Amino acid sequence: MAGELKPLVAAAFLWYLLTIAAYSMVGPARDALLMTRFGPAMLPWVYLAGAALTGAAVWTYGRFARSSRRRLIGGTLAALALTLGGGGLLVAEAGSRALSFLYFLWCDVFGIMSVTLFWTYADDVFTAEESLRVFGLLSAAAPVGAILGDLAVRRWVRAVGPSAILVAAAALFALAVPLFLFMESRAGGRGKSGAPPRAAAPVPAAGLLKTIIASPFLLWLAALVAFERLVPDFSKYLYSVEASRAFGGDARVMASFFAGVDLWTGVGSFIAGIIFTAPALRLFGIGGLLASAGLANLALLALYPAAPGLRLCAVFMALEGTARYTWFKTAKESTYTATGKDVLYRVKAFIEMFVYRIARGGAGLLLLAAGWVGLGARGVAVLGIPFGLAWLYTAARTAREHARVSEGS
């Protein structure tokens, strides 16, 4: 690794580690509070409202997309840390159900925006060639951060409660701001100056949708991201139903259990990221890695109707998380390096935040419809199977288009 890369990679690794550690603390605490205060029946509404709130966040982010990297990324990181911590304190003191619901939605937005900001910056700072060598290492920061975050939850949540965990996560995430500023000081002139000839055209004034529709690669990538969000929401619903049955209204015990499952996910992700990502990429290619998390979800949806239970859901949630946060993530982020700067900073934010959450809204509508017709948890699993199959097909098409774009650049 070149000498100039080492400080950037080290800072990026630590930045991503802190982001995932904070997110791993937020997830179990937020989910336990949500389930114990509102129950799994509220999940479809959470998905729908979360899509709307994310849309507003993406619109606001887009208004500043042409600002300097320092202002755009640094300002957004600081805002996320302040709102996460301040909201956690407010919810703990106020005790309002409406305020709690809004804050839980914002925690969801925090999760997607914090990760998207990191990878948007990494895609810009590192070249396409460097990404093939560096992104596997950066992805390994995710399981390390997840393990640390989950251990913190399991160690402290029963003593201090989920709300305090949320505030601590915000303080941890705030450390990403100086790391970003350090990277900016060392990045120099690094950054994309334009799209490769066949990768994607510059974003026209007519809008982002036309840009995506005009590029088969971006269109299939957007579809892949939609299935990446929609299908796991079916699995998450089954997991939440079984957890609510097992733990009832005990938020601290439920949060500890969620963190335990996430801890095993982190261990699996660390092993998969460090040891098996490069061999898997050589063996299965980008298309195989893009399909990996879809296969884990599809297996759960297929098995659940015959053998429902918390143990089955927990095992496959861990397997799905392992695949999605290592192999799938590495492959997906590598595809973005075929695009230019305008696409990277505007279209990627639209796909990864807006399309991602609109898909979650679609999952909410489907789950509401399933509840209205009385399908039950088994019926929800069956309903999700065609979407899991669609994920696999979309992964293959995305890989094919990425290869075409890369050859033409």
How would you summarize what this structure contains?
The protein is an all-alpha fold and 409 residues long.
Tag the structure with descriptive keywords.
409 residues; mainly alpha; Growth Hormone, Chain: A; 13 helices; globular
Provide a descriptive summary of the structure in words.
This protein has 409 residues and is an all-alpha fold. It has a single domain (5-408), classed as MFS general substrate transporter like domains (Growth Hormone, Chain: A). It is 86% helix and 0% strand. The chain has helices at residues 5-38, 43-63, 69-94, 97-125, 128-160, 162-173, 176-187, 208-214, 216-247, 251-303, 310-336, 341-372, 376-408. The chain is globular and about 55 Å long. The protein starts with a helix and ends with a helix. Residues 193-206 have low confidence and may be disordered.
At the fold tier of CATH, the topology name is Growth Hormone, Chain: A
Average pLDDT number:
86
Number of helices: 13
Topology as a string of helices (H) and strands (E): HHHHHHHHHHHHH
Question: What's the SSE blueprint?
Answer:
Elements: H1 5-38, H2 43-63, H3 69-94, H4 97-125, H5 128-160, H6 162-173, H7 176-187, H8 208-214, H9 216-247, H10 251-303, H11 310-336, H12 341-372, H13 376-408
